[in-house]
Amino acid sequence: MPATTAPATWFVTGASRGIGFELVRQLLAQGDNVTATTRSTERLLAALAGAADSGRLLALTVDLTDQAQVENAENQATERFGRLDVVVNNAGYGYLAAVEETSAKDVRDMLDVQVIGVWNVLRAVLPVLREQRAGRVINISSILGLTTMPGWALYCAGKFALEGLSEALAAEVADFGIKVTVVEPGYFRTSFLTTDSPSLPVATSEHYPAVRAMVEDHLRLQGRQLGDPVKGAAAIIERAGLDGGPLRQLLGSEAHAYATAKVEALRANLDATAAYAATTDFPDA
Length: 285
Prior knowledge:
The chain is α/β, with parallel strands linked by helices and about 280 residues long. It is built from 8 helices and 7 strands, in the order E-H-E-H-E-H-E-H-E-H-E-H-H-E-H. The chain has a 7-stranded parallel beta sheet, with helices on both faces. Helix 1 crosses helix 7 and helix 4 runs parallel beside helix 5. The chain is globular and about 60 Å long. The termini are far apart.
């Protein structure tokens, strides 16, 4: 974030729904400039109503899997606002199915958005941030980027990849004054689990009744999630303004509980294999 009192400039993907939309709404309300990319600028502008008329919003329809479209969006953003301060990679969607039920297209589509799309944005914005010697990248992962559950393998694959990308990126760009934050939300009361939001397989298998039950349980969870998207967006905005702090930002008490359980399980696994780990080393190493 700039050290002056001038408005910060944000670049937010996946901005028409969920936490992405709430981020845009709050940023405009506090006087910041926002380039918001989405698959539906009409939906975004309608939801924002009068807030979109301030001149501080640049709403763009962008296919994040198309590098040329992403670069064009970044060019428009810097031409309009003069700089970039915070880049938020938020675009994504859920997919609930057993591994065996996913098609090749399902896998490509998910990784195109969750991984390739983020990579395209990073390639477009990093030269700007590097030249400025300042800026922050916020990658919206999930608690399912740290742990897993049956039926979420494809979604987890994308988020686990994003976690690895973010860790490496943070080390690469630190000397340029660029900071990286990975946000790991739990279940938030957004449209993420509405029946028209998560993707489901075209055909299911009778061999995975537990996955079918999980899907039904998750769809019934809609409207009862613990996470408040207004508070979640505010926490991300606050974190973006801080110089220090850890790489990861967990959002939600259940996210913290899931992450703690994963760390404890990993520690138990390390302890159980400690005696055998060195047996594959050369003896003179």
